[in-house]
Amino acid sequence: MARIFSGIQPTGIATLGNYLGALRNWVELQQGEDECIYCLVDLHAITTFQEPAALREQTYTMAALLLACGIKPERSILFHQSAVSAHARLGWIFNCVARMGWLNRMTQFKDKAGKDREAVSTGLFVYPNLMAADIHAYHATKVPVGDDQLQHIELANDIAEKFNHDFGVSFFPRIEPVILKETARVMSLRDGTKKMSKSDPSDQSRINMTDDADMISSKIRKAKTDPEPLPDNLAALAERPEARNLLGIFAAVSGESQEALLARFAGGGFGPFKSALAEALVAHVEPIGRRTREYLADKAELDRILREGARRAAGIAGPIVEKAERIVGFLPGAA
Ligand code: AMP
Ligand code: TRP
Question: Which of 93, 139, 201, 247 is the 20 to 30 A CA-CA neighbour of 285?
Fold first, then answer.
């Protein structure tokens, strides 16, 4: 039995990109043998400023959404990161293992910091070290993520290797990303070369998992496309990122292959294709939004689920991180 760990930031509303790239896999992985640990990474969230009341609300919303997508708290461990101190403790050790040069190469930091490098928080810079700690605190070996996180997974392996090497141990195992290829990256509805993101200023660029049927249909109707008709083969879409993206989404939510969809819509314009896509999307996404609102109506129950998850998570990560602290040379603290 392997252990699976993944995390999502409780900021903004999860998009179809989060769902198809990550959350759907989280749900599927529960069917297997492996132990699944899913974390709302609030420590990561505050690397950019969050209004406290909004952070609280979004943590509840993300928990409700995960439950609505089908995460089963009896089967998987679901909790918020700040509730388990092992993350921050191992994160600090990793801050002292990782090298500035390694972090300087992280493309996500470069993207997020932009021209403002001097003004971003230092937390944003060391964020990948904390992500490595999240995973290694559980000796997890499989990490389901979208492909934008691959560089961080490699870094987590480099950190573990250096820790093992520096202290002459083989304590932290290698980790493997788990990626579903077809929808590894869902792109913006306004620009097929940019990933769909919950932080994009334009709400029209994304499907939010809480959008209602009208909203979903209207966003798909207005989604950017090109004037050419749909081709009868995938290769012909190579230079048409918007069309490729919509086709990928359609295949993912309908369960039909991209080839089969092209065979059905080839030669036509985007009108009928978009109507069918909107219908498939609404059928898939709207029930999740509705269940999310139902879970959100009972905060006491969400608290209970998250606290129970944190208790189980701490039971695994506590002893592992304590061992790491002994390896580093820290004296034991209070029992
Ligand atoms: P974030 O929204 O950055 O907190 O990402 C949470 C998870 O969703 C990560 O595993 C990401 O790789 C995944 N993800 C975010 N946006 C997309 C996207 N547009 N396509 C595919 N996966 C995504
Ligand atoms: N950095 C990830 C993201 O932005 C979220 C994350 C934090 C994560 N810790 C993790 C993902 C550990 C997988 C494993 O999407």
Answer: 201
Ligand 2 pocket test target in 18, 40, 41, 106 with most atoms within 8 Å of CB: 41
Q: Which CATH number fits domain 210-294: 3.90.226.10, 2.60.120.460, 1.10.240.10, 3.30.300.20?
A: 1.10.240.10
Q: Taking the domain 3-184+299-328, which CATH number applies? A: 3.40.50.620
Atom of ligand 2 nearest to the CA of 9: 5
Interatomic CA distance for residues 256 and 194, integer angstroms = 25
Grade residue 179 by pLDDT with cuts at 50, 70 and 90. Answer: confident
> Which residues approach ligand 1 with their CB closer than 6 A?
8-9, 17-18, 21-22, 145-146, 148-149, 185-186, 195-198
pLDDT digits (tens, 9 = 90+) for 253-272: 999 999 999 999 999 999 99
- Split at pLDDT 50, 70, 90, the class of 335 is low
Distance 38 CA to ligand 2 centre (A): 10
The long-range contacts involving 178-182, CB below 8 angstroms and separated by at least 24 positions, are 178/4, 178/25, 178/29, 178/142, 178/143, 178/144, 178/145, 179/144, 179/145, 179/146, 179/147, 179/150, 180/21, 180/24, 180/25, 182/248, 182/251, 182/252, 182/258
What are the residue boundaries of the structural domains of the chain, listed by start?
Answer: 3-184+299-328, 210-294
Per-residue buried b or exposed e for 200-239, using 16+ beta carbons within 10 Å of the residue's own CB: beeeebbbbbbbeeebbbebbeebbbeeeebeeeeeebee
